[in-house]
Automatic annotation (TrEMBL), chain A:
Species of origin: Chlorobium phaeovibrioides
Protein name: NADH-quinone oxidoreductase subunit N
Membership in a protein family: Belongs to the complex I subunit 2 family.
UniProt xrefs under Pfam families: Proton_antipo_M (PF00361)
Lineage, opening ranks: Bacteria, Pseudomonadati, Chlorobiota, Chlorobiia, Chlorobiales
Membrane spanning residue stretches: 20-40, 52-69, 89-110, 122-141, 147-166, 178-200, 220-245, 257-281, 296-317, 324-343, 349-372, 393-424, 430-452, 473-493
GO terms under biological process: ATP synthesis coupled electron transport
InterPro entries found in the cross-reference section: NADH-Q_OxRdtase_suN/2, ND/Mrp_TM
Function description: NDH-1 shuttles electrons from NADH, via FMN and iron-sulfur (Fe-S) centers, to quinones in the respiratory chain. The immediate electron acceptor for the enzyme in this species is believed to be a menaquinone. Couples the redox reaction to proton translocation (for every two electrons transferred, four hydrogen ions are translocated across the cytoplasmic membrane), and thus conserves the redox energy in a proton gradient.
The keyword DNA damage belongs to this UniProt entry's keyword annotation: no
Gene symbol of the encoding locus: nuoN
Reactions performed catalytically: a quinone + NADH + 5 H(+)(in) = a quinol + NAD(+) + 4 H(+)(out)
Domain of life (superkingdom): Bacteria
UniProtKB/TrEMBL annotation, chain B:
Record's protein name: NADH-quinone oxidoreductase subunit A
Stretches assigned to coiled coil: none
Membrane spanning residue stretches: 12-29, 63-84, 90-114
Name of the top EC class for this enzyme: translocase
Length: 512, 143
């Protein structure tokens, strides 16, 4: 029979909840912002509604930096019965996701297609904020249930956002495909979670790791469980072979959302992947040596190599810039996985730094794509012909961002790749091959990235028209700043890499 | 370890019994019943109505919206029941929590209401008009 808990038990539960709330302020703030935006949407009337809502979101998200910054002073630890963790690693991603939400809003405000396609901007900005909340929780979740809940919050918001151009068939197709793939992969992931729970009878990842270390496990079940869980994480990071949704979704979704998904959603996947696999699941030479001789690390290696090769090779044939960047983002997931494979603090630092650089260059590239499609109404490579003379700054900026995406000096992308590869090389012979594959596939990527500047600067426009296309002063300024930042952090990367190193401290890692 | 295994064993036995139960039902029916099919018997049972057309028609999206709004409050009740059973011991903190919870859901209802999702407007049939004369003004073109 069900027994009512005693008064003392209830009091202790409530006191744990109350003490947890103090470490949960940024999330609470963001939730209030979310609801505030909905109320604002209901209250506002008139033509300039989209602009007001967008700026309100920007300011609101910016305000959360204040609360996040205060968390540095708090001690790392678990809260809410081990559901939720506060550590430097989580704080890093809080900054990251709030900033990426802000960037998505900036890109949305710049995108003219929204004025034409969307009758009421309505809940759009609120959903962007909801996605930020979900991703923040993904980075800090330390319990299987919380992980699932956070991932679903991100996914559900993302499905709606990617289909926001209701009358655009491609946008609706994107949302539907995203939904179907998402449902399948979260189902698989849940099955993996249930296997882990079956083995350990725990849902907290720290306790899972202790349980597995103490009592051992069946390696066959373990590899099956990790494979299933990786289906869920791999879908979020868009790595081969769980990438099938990404080209169609990236092409069909509104461009700001494409950028948002490709940077923030991917980073959230990596935040979770790193924490989960570093802490929960044992790897390598354990007392319970695998009968198959493979563990989840091997699976990650296969995923990483396949992503790098597949993403970079298939991108060669793409005619649509958004689709091209989608395949490139699959390849970047591969590079990031290389950093995960290293399995130490240097690797984590490299991944975090790479995410920062990817944030800068990928968002910036998509921003320029938005500005160009505002003027030309198109995203195909052929329509980029001759744009270099009409939009000189946009052309120059996009070239810089693409060089950074290739990973050539003196850009921030180069430092990112350098850190990943040097982390690999410090681990020994087998890892050199992985680094070599990484370098070789980067060379392939040089070809397709450079197709864009080639079309912009060296090929004549199909319909000659000497009218210059000015994207506006604010957009020019934004592009210039992003361009300078991309090069600046390529030369003076110390603050970023220090920040990444400082943030690689995960709660519970020392216990394992 | 044995404890957990037996729990899984329970589930497995339950699963097997389910399969046996369904299969056994079908098998018994097959052995006992006379088999004299005729067109009326084999037609789809639709509460006495004759089935017309395909089942794959589009449903009005409003059904889903209303169902979703219903689910929200259904779930709210599920969460409030356990809260209510221990309400006396919980104190003011839990009262505030529950109010916040309900408040969020009410905001959702207000949102759906203001956006017009609760209005069950009957679609007004639009009578096709005579085609107008081709307009000389060009429709506004996007640049």
């Amino acid at each position: 029979m069900f027994e009512l808990p005693s008064g003392a038990e209830i009091q202790s539960i409530i006191s744990i909840l109350k003490s947890g709330l103090g470490f949960f302020i940024p999330e609470i703030y963001l939730s209030i912002l979310f609801m505030g935006l909905i109320i604002l949407d209901l209250a506002l009337k008139g033509r300039n509604k989209s602009g007001i809502l967008g700026w309100a979101t920007l300011i609101g998200l910016g305000g959360s930096f204040y609360f996040i910054a205060q968390q540095h002073a708090m001690q790392a630890g678990e809260h809410f019965f081990g559901m939720y963790v506060l550590d430097e690693y989580a704080i890093f991603f809080k900054y990251f996701f709030v900033a990426s939400g802000m960037f998505a809003v900036v890109a949305t405000l710049a995108d003219r297609k929204f004025d034409a396609e969307v009758k009421s901007i309505g809940e759009y900005y609120a959903l962007v904020v909801a996605m930020v909340i979900g991703m923040v929780m993904m980075a800090a979740a330390s319990d299987l249930l919380m992980i699932f809940l956070a991932m679903e919050l991100v996914s559900l918001s993302a499905y709606i956002l990617s289909g926001y151009f209701k009358r655009d068939a491609r946008s609706s197709e994107a949302a539907l495909k995203y939904l179907v793939y998402g449902a399948v992969s979260s189902g698989l992931m849940l099955y993996g979670f249930s296997l882990i729970y079956g083995m350990t009878a725990e849902t907290n990842i720290l306790k899972i790791s202790m349980e597995l270390a103490d009592h051992g496990y069946d390696p066959l079940v373990m590899i099956l469980a990790t494979l299933l869980i990786m289906a869920g994480f791999g879908y979020k990071i868009g790595a081969f072979p769980f990438h099938f949704w990404s080209p169609d979704v990236y092409e069909g979704a509104p461009t700001p959302i494409t950028a948002y998904l490709s940077v923030a959603s991917k980073a959230a996947g990596f935040a979770l992947l790193l924490r989960f696999f570093y802490i929960a699941v044992p790897h390598g030479v354990s007392p319970y040596e695998d009968i198959l001789g493979i563990d989840w690390l091997t699976l990650l290696v296969i995923m990483s190599v396949a992503s790098m090769i597949y993403g970079n090779v298939v991108a060669i044939w793409q005619k649509n810039v958004k689709r091209l960047l989608a395949y490139s983002s699959i390849a970047h997931a591969g590079y990031l996985l290389l950093g995960v494979i290293v399995m130490d603090e240097i690797g984590t630092q490299a991944v975090l730094f790479y995410l920062l650089s990817y944030f800068l260059m990928n968002y910036a590239a998509f921003y320029v794509v938005v500005l160009i499609s505002n003027r030309t109404g198109s995203e195909t490579l052929d329509d980029y012909r001759g744009l270099g003379s009409k939009m000189p700054l946009a052309g120059a900026a996009l070239t810089v961002f693409l060089i950074s995406l290739v990973g050539l000096p003196p850009t921030v992308g180069f430092i990112g790749k350098l850190m990943i590869f040097s982390a690999l090389l410090s681990k020994g012979a087998l890892y050199i091959w992985l680094a070599l594959i990484g370098v070789l596939t980067s060379v392939i990527s040089l070809y397709y990235y450079m197709l864009i500047p080639l079309n912009m600067f060296l090929r004549e426009s199909l319909e000659p028209n000497e009218k210059s296309l000015n994207p506006g002063f604010l957009a020019q300024l934004m592009m210039a700043v992003l361009m300078i930042l991309t090069i600046w952090f390529g030369l003076f990367f110390e603050p970023l890499s220090e920040f990444a190193r400082y943030s690689s401290a995960m709660f519970g890692l020392s216990l394992y | 370890m044995d404890q957990t295994l037996s729990e899984f064993g329970n589930v497995f036995v339950f699963f097997l019994l389910g399969v046996v139960f369904v299969a056994g039902g079908y098998l018994t029916a097959r052995m006992l019943r006379p088999s004299r099919p005729n067109p009326v018997k084999t037609s789809t049972y639709e509460c006495g109505e004759e089935a017309v057309g395909s089942a794959w028609v589009k449903f009005n999206i409003r059904f889903y919206v209303v169902a979703l709004i219903f689910i929200i409050f259904d779930v709210e009740v599920v969460f409030l029941f356990p809260w209510a059973t221990v309400f006396r011991q919980l104190g003011s903190f839990a009262l505030v929590e529950a109010l916040v919870f309900a408040g969020i859901l009410i905001l959702g209802l207000v949102y759906a209401w203001v956006k017009g999702d609760l209005d069950w407007v009957r679609p007004t049939p639009s009578v096709p008009k005579m085609p107008e004369m081709p307009a000389s003004k060009s429709t506004s073109q996007r640049d």
